[in-house]
Amino acid sequence: MSDQAIVEKMKTKFSSEILSVVEFRGETTVTVKKERIVDICTFMRDDLGYNLLCDLCGVDYMGKSPRFMVVYNLYNITKKQRIRVKAPVEEQNANIDTVCTVWGTANWHERECWDMMGIKFNNHPDLRRILMSADWEGHPLRKDYPVQGPDREPYQGRLS
Amino acid sequence: MVMTPEVLTLSQTPWLFTGVMLVKIAVAFVVTLLIVAYATWAERKIIGRMQTRMGPTMTGPKGLLQPIADGLKLFFKEDIIPAQAHYFAFILAPMMILAPAFISIAVIPFGGNIHFTYDGTLYAVPMQITDLNIGVLFIMAMAGLGVYGIVLAGLASNSKYALLGGIRATAQMISYELAVGLSIIAIFMLSETLSLRGIVAAQQLPLWGIESLSFIPNWYVFCQPLAFGLFVVGSMAEINRTPFDLPEAETELVSGFCTEYSAMKYALFFMAEYANMITVSAVATTLFLGGWGGPFFGWMNFLIKVFGFMFFFIRIRATFPRLRYDQLMFLGWKIMLPLALANVVLSGIAILLW
Amino acid sequence: MAANTSETMTINMGPQHPSTHGVLQLILELDGEIVQKATPHIGFLHRGIEKLSEHRTYHQIIPLTDRLDYLAPMSNNLGYVLAVEKLLGITDEIPERVQRIRVIMTELTRLKSHLVWLACHALDIGAMTVFLYCFRERESITDIYEKVSGARMTSNYFRVGGLAEDFPAGLEGEIRTFAESIPAHVEEYEGLLTGNRIWQKRTIGVGKISAEAAIDIGITGPALRASGVDWDLRRDNPYSGYEDYSFEVPVRTGCDTFDRYKVRLDEMRQSALIVLQALDKLKPGPILADCPKVVLPDKEDVYNNIEGLIHHFKIVTEGFKPEIGEIYQGIEAPKGELGFYLVSDGTNHPFRMKIRPPSFVNLQGLPQMVEGKLLADVIAVIGTLDIVLGEIDR
């Protein structure tokens, strides 16, 4: 099944949810609304066979609206195909439903996304910080978080 | 005219007896200590060779001074006692484990008699510190006491790893002492004495009392091979050597019962391990391999056999992975204990029939 | 009297512990020696590589990737440069010699990583000798590393569009001798472990995880293949010319520690075969792609030619600017699927780089595999998952 066919199937099932479909370097990215992300993911897994969630991460497009994008890189182990699903998340009340129920692996990925980006995952079973210590303030991978850390002089050397 | 040698006794020649006794104790103690020190060196060298390494090379020729350097280093290191540890028990534990290991040496015969003339009388001195008539029992008792040291170390450290190590040690020692004890019983049944000297003497006779086989000595390993196997495996477990080194399983329990120990106290544990190895080898030699009997001069035969056993233990360490706790218990209670019991029963029947 | 007065003991395993393979902390709730609950805590080695890479040019990130899975640096290099090449759209322009050398080096890296895994796994279970045997062979690979890249661990050898340097003279023969010796060495390890009753008792049936559970939790690589899932990115989504080599993907169905051990040993044999095949196909040729905007010019050019110097200067100081877009590149790293998700905003540094570290995901399976088992099994399972904390914490 080609990527177009898969996108078509998604479009027939979730016509109002899909915001855009982009193809770049042979990879298809489907942007969907965040409200029904669990349904979409369940559909992806059960009907389209994307049984492995390779990666889940957040991207901070600071200055744009919506600010965040949650990215799901999916893989179909039987057909050896990849697809990428993205869901925009607003800066205010940054949250999205968890997909832990769809892929167990999302648990730690979502914890990391919360830790690094500050995107909350509703209904997540164990939403704690994972890489930073529990009492850390701020979310380091946000674009407004300085690279040298929050309480230090900006780095004077060359960082290109 | 051949003079019959007199036996030294405390009542007739008290000073001479005490002097000879002290010399014997000193010699046995120093030799054991030296073997302990150089067992560590030998272990490092032998395992090094087996693992494509060199072992110690820098301290002295071929690294021969390494044990002394290690000893000095550990002696001068800071002695740390954890704040929450039980002070008295914490200090007592290493001694409790080392002392029994050395005491057991007292009843082991190293060789035949030494004759010397003093004041016109010929005396015979056995090469053994003391020949208890319940020697084997004494060794078992001392081995049992050694457990307390480990358990105490585990409890007193107030560390969870040490505690787990102590618990493991208790269970392991109890389970394997049973099998070891039962395997030795078969030996008493044959020798009809508990004195280690008597047991060695019984093994100097021709094999199974048949004169035509007199070139083979009547070592009990030939008539009790199963007991020998059980004894060696069981004692390996009792002295916590690989593959039974669970109480100090480094990768699981950090260092087990000696996690919190440092400096000389740690060294005492280390020495105890090797002293136990020597004791076990010596006991196995005495009980199964005819003690000092053999082609060479008495104590030389004895040492050769002991070193053979120690080499075997070292080699096992280089080859085997570690058992798991439940597997260890399974082996102890469900395989070795029944086998030892069966061995006792079979030996009894055999003795009754012949 | 209460029927059950048992209490559990909470034990802190790590971050300083001989067999947590780094700074992993496990909070174990023990009932006697039985693990009731295991909670991994990670992040002690977090160095912010993803954040740092948002502030560096694309070439400057390669050394950072060395520090991810520091036991397999070239695999990380490969994953990253492939991702950048894909982002630039120059995947098809990579010269053949570069492809071959990359395959040789990443397969040697796989061997290197698996050797360390076997060494530590065996040591964890108590077999000390295997540890040193494995490190003996690993030493040869680090020597090869040193000869090609100058460094024994953090290689920083691959470049976007090519390699830092060509193989030095005579190295091919050395690699061939080494690769030919691997099957005999693997036999040696198997001789020490596979038939050993204690080894079998410690590994068979320990840390079982079914194929469905493994996929759900996201386990990839040898650990997944030992659960019966026949999936290897080298074969199924070939990159860097892997389609030219014939090799088997070992798959076993035991789902336990022993089968993961066997799968990895078989993979070592296959890796040696791939290295030999790649050496056979290795022909002289350029080691940099012909994309002057992106690829650093030849050193000869830089020293003797003003255009070359200017190019070099521009690329080193300013870097290159890929188009706006995003790509994901996954490779079969020794520990599983290593993925790089790159977002470009058209500037000279990535807008976002997300690394998908295989160990991070595989470690998630640990609680499921050890709960209800004995403490000693935790050690065996940590070993069999083959985790590296540099990669987990990034």
Fill in the keyword field for this structure.
heterotrimer, B: 354 residues, mainly alpha, three-stranded mixed beta sheet, 3 strands, C: 394 residues, Cytochrome-c3 Hydrogenase, chain B, three-stranded antiparallel beta sheet
Please, could you describe this protein's structure?
The complex is a heterotrimer of chains A (160), B (354) and C (394). Chain A has 160 residues and is an alpha/beta fold. Helices cover 21% and strands 29% of the residues of chain A. Chain A is built from three helices and seven strands. Chain A has helices at 3-13, 37-46, 106-117; strands at residues 18-24, 27-32, 52-60, 68-76, 81-89, 95-97, 120-122. A five-stranded mixed sheet of chain A has the order 1-2-5-4-3. In chain A, strands 6-7 form a two-stranded parallel ribbon. Chain A is globular. Helix content of chain B is 64%, strand content 5%. Chain B has helices at 14-50, 66-76, 87-103, 135-156, 160-191, 196-202, 220-223, 225-238, 250-253, 263-288, 298-319, 325-353, and strands spanning 6-7, 111-118, 121-127. In chain B, helix 1 (14-50) runs parallel beside helix 11 (298-319), helix 2 crosses helix 10 (263-288) and helix 3 packs antiparallel against helix 4 (135-156). Chain B starts with 5 loop residues before the first strand and ends with a helix. The mean pLDDT of chain B is 82. Chain C is mainly α. Chain C has two domains: 60-289 and 321-393, Orthogonal Bundle (Cytochrome-c3 Hydrogenase, chain B); 291-317, no CATH class. Chain C has a three-stranded antiparallel sheet. Chain C has a three-stranded antiparallel sheet with strand order 6-7-8. The chains are: A alpha/beta (160), B mainly alpha (354), C mainly alpha (394). Chains in contact: A-C, B-C. The A-C interface holds A 24-25, 27, 29, 51-55, 57, 59-60, 71, 73, 75, 77, 80, 82, 84, 103-105, 107-109, 116, 129-133, 140-141, 145, 147, 159-160 and C 42-43, 46, 48, 50-52, 54-57, 60, 86-87, 89, 213, 215-218, 220, 229, 231, 236-237, 317-319, 325-328, 330, 337, 339, 341, 343, 348-349, 351-352, 354, 356, 360-361, 364, 393-394.
